[in-house]
Design goal:
The protein is α/β, with parallel strands linked by helices and 533 residues long. Among the domains are: 136 residues, no CATH class; 198 residues, no CATH class. The strands form 6 sheets. A 4-stranded parallel β-sheet has the order 4-3-7-8, with helices on both faces. It has a two-stranded antiparallel ribbon with strand order 1-2. Strands 5-6 form a two-stranded antiparallel ribbon. The protein is globular and about 70 Å long.
Amino acid sequence: MMSALRDVADGAAGLRVADAAQEAVEPAASSASSVANSPAPAISGVPVTLPQPASVSHWGKRYARRLVFTDLIALAWAAVGVHMVHLNDLRGDRLSAEAGGLPFLTLTVSLVVVWFAALTLGGTRQPTAVGHGPVEYKRIAQITLSVFGGTAILSYLFALWLPRSYLLIMMPAGLVALVMSRYVWRRWLHTRRDFGHFQSAVLAVGSASTVTALVRDLQRSPRAGYRVVAVCLTRRPGEDVPVSLDGLPVVGGVADVKDAVSRVGADTVAVTASASMGPSVVRELSWQLEDTPATLVLAPALTDIAGPRIHTQPVNGLPLIHVDRPSYRGANRLLKKTFDLVVGTMVLILLSVPLIVIAVLVKLSSPGPVFFRQQRVGINGRMFYMIKFRSMVQDAEASLATLRLQRAEADAGNDVLFKMKEDPRITRVGKVLRRLSLDELPQLFNVLLGSMSLVGPRPPLAAEVERYGSDARRRLLVKPGLTGLWQVSGRSDLSWEESVRLDSYYVENWSITGDLVILWKTARAVAGGGGAY
């Protein structure tokens, strides 16, 4: 399986060469297009400098060709496997008849064809599903289970006697191969997007405030594949339109969207929620874009709300958006507590030897206790003692006031939390422990005692909570965590506002799946050591 994945890059060499040629041609196309569209129009008497129009990349089609290639390899690998592997039951007899002979070969080929067609029709290669978020993987799993579940039902209804090896070998092997190949391609796509390729060129439409918010939200997730290239602003009669907004050129108003799409080479038009963008305006704009290659995207006034909490219900042509309540009460809290106890106990047992080794190193490195206990604020404002490996000298708290006066250059852009990149109180062993976040491991005992969770907001000090605003106080609705979104999104390098935003998002959108993803990303972030000091 892994050798097949390693061969993907060589097998797709032709596709890469074609893309390289296309990317080399794009600047020339941009230049020719800019000449054709000159001179630039003027808005309110002020000439506007347009960006270089780029040909619509159609990155989705180019990327889908790669997925087709590896999807076929994954399905073929599973098909061959079901004919190569035989299952025996405890008595030594065949669990099912061997998947050999013409009838079974025909069945295997038919399953592969149906499976591949379902992956295509189910939208697993659509640009809106691939490259970001869990939708791509969810669709693959749902389609795989549906195909084999439907096959099993038909086999039972028509007495076709489907060998169990199809369900026990072909289905899981194919599913694992598909998910692994998609993961490899996603990593490749993220690398390409880091260099500005395989992205959708977005023309943002709306008021100055809503467009600015949209641009900054998209900039926080560059690997989602949306890059704003220009802006069309709504305006009141007699109001001047700026030449640029947040570093992006303003190329007109709502009436100029269709022409702007061709001038800047946009393949996506994102309409933000504003008072002047009513239903009739949006509907007319969608009609205008029918003759262009651009797709229309609506950005409602909903931020920091996870997809599973949003449901759309059409009522008489009006799409009503339902937002589910946050999931931090009732049965969800019991489920999270059970998850913490089970996983926390397993991790503590697995790390028992490293914990003992670290404890010995801390004791030998400098005078003082092995553990550092500090009072923190937990769920609903309850106080508890958080346990960590001591990473500073014994009298570290006594010199805190003096260091606060010297932190002008050392504080990591955070007005509430005290963090220094070169804190003189940290011991040599403590510096290593902090870089790898190993000093946090004793918090597993806090998790088992019920005062903390494996994943959650950062545990704050009482002095920090006194400075909380109403939005920051929502962090206290759940238990603080050993790790969290703040840990995998920059750690100590984050600003205070960004830390609050991430923690608030977690509080309102918690899920077991999300916790597993954060734990996985934490391991990668800790290995990198970025943002920890």
